[in-house]
Write a structure and sequence with these properties.
Structural class: alpha/beta
Helix content: 25-40%
Number of domains: 1
CATH superfamily: Vaccinia Virus protein VP39
Radius of gyration: 16 Å
Largest sheet: 7 strands, mixed
CATH class: Alpha Beta
Strand content: 25-35%
Strand order of the largest sheet: 5-4-3-6-7-9-8
Shape: globular
Length: about 220
Amino acid sequence: MQAEKFYTKKFRFYDKKTQNELIVVIPEVLDPNYGFYVWPCAPVLAQYVWFFREEIKGKHILELSAGTALPGIVAAKCNAASVTLSEHILTPNCLKHCVNCCANNGLENVSVIGITWGLFSPELLNLPPVDVILASDCFYDSKDFDDIFVTLSFIFEKNDKCEFWCTYQIRSTDKSIAYLLERWNFTCDHIPLESFEANGPSVAESNFPGNHTIEMLKISRKKT
């Protein structure tokens, strides 16, 4: 069997005011599985985490469908109290790749667990407290949208002040989560990309998102 060939992609997050920078290097594999390479949404979400790193400091972070885990790795590097990365429970290679991406950036204290949308697995049921949920491009296939909100709703029930930070690539005007937000009693704020320096074609010097249209969303429970 031919050995997998890894490539690396470097991301440089830079604060013009303080001149602080963060370098993250992600190993990628040319594999048909979605979780082995960085998608255009991930650098945008990671830039949001970097830009608002003071909000991340000391918080408990969960990244869902992490893949190469760029946003979660940035959160860990920005002094989050804890970071948990998750991938589909039936994709052990993706889970292993999450571990490899963390190790490649000197992170040994990041938990990697299996969570599948809509499935009440022991890993989901026994989640520690969560302050912020991260996900990049989770709203990809509309058949998964209901399951995504089932999982989110369960986590929010246990963590009522939790926020869900996600990026979404617009591929079709026919796809919308507005009705699901209403059904599950969530509210959504659209965050302008220019407000966190992510409105260019090459966020974190990555050549992503290129010409793709990305939206940044912050989702929380409606206040009663």
